[in-house]
What we know:
It is a multi-pass membrane protein. The protein folds into two domains: 2-44; 70-296, MetI-like fold (Orthogonal Bundle), CATH 1.10.3720.10. The protein is globular, with a radius of gyration of 25 Å. The chain has 14 helices and two strands; from the N terminus they run αααααααααααααββα. The chain is 72% helix and 2% strand. By secondary structure, it is mainly alpha-helical.
Amino acid sequence: MATEIRQASSPWMYRRTLRLFLNYVVAIAIGIVMIFPLLWMFSGALKTKEMLLEETVINLIPPLPWQWHNFIDAWTALAFTRFLFNTLVITVASIFGGLLSASMVAFGFARLRFVGRNFLFFIVLGTMMVPMQVTAIPTFLLFHRLGWLNTYLPLIVPMWMGGGAFYIFLLRQYIMTIPTELDDAAKIDGCSPIGIYRHVILPNIGPALAAASIFLFLHSWNDLWGPLIYLTDDNTWTLARGMLTFKRTLAEFRHGGGLRQYQIHWFLSLGTMTMLPVLFIYLVLQRHFVSGVVTSGLKG
């Protein structure tokens, strides 16, 4: 009997092992494709321009000596400090405002009872289907009339108005996984809706807030569309806006005889410096990020 069970389970175990093996192979292949450009960028940042231009086979291990001065040269050429400060101000303000406003709106949709709640929520979700290009002109005219051009306000204030439908949806789904018995207990203790939001909901949605903060950080840190439209004064430029100009002008210089050459090693150094904060924040918040995204999808 035991022999028959073993023989019957053997094909099943073989198929299961083969399936797992193929899954891992596909996952590793996708991972290599995704990480290869980053490795090439990190490697190129430590090479000279001549090495990069003469390289016929991609070498991910830069030869010695490593060109650490590329980072200093690129930092100075781009005025990296000023652009970094502008980007940090916009990013921090956007994250704080986005988390605060999106969590409050999500709390209202998840916990408060009012007529038309689901209908309004569907309208909010529907705004995700509207391309930003459709509203670009009226939004620009509005900010122009308000006198907000060449200021941080066009990039910060919209994030304080709910942060965006995706963040509201993400936090609302997570809030719905929290037992309503906690709300009832807080009401018995005399908590108002604001008190429930502050003392019950916020302390229990940390993973979702971490996930939303990463998305908000990426949105503000990498944003080129907004700065390209609203910021024409180089004193207000962000890293993304500054790097675009660097690519067009500062990365090129004239040698004798009028030859124009591209400073690709500087540009790779700038890309590396811009990428490191994103990578660091993701690694620090990775556990909360995965937990928040997964749990938010458990309740419909």
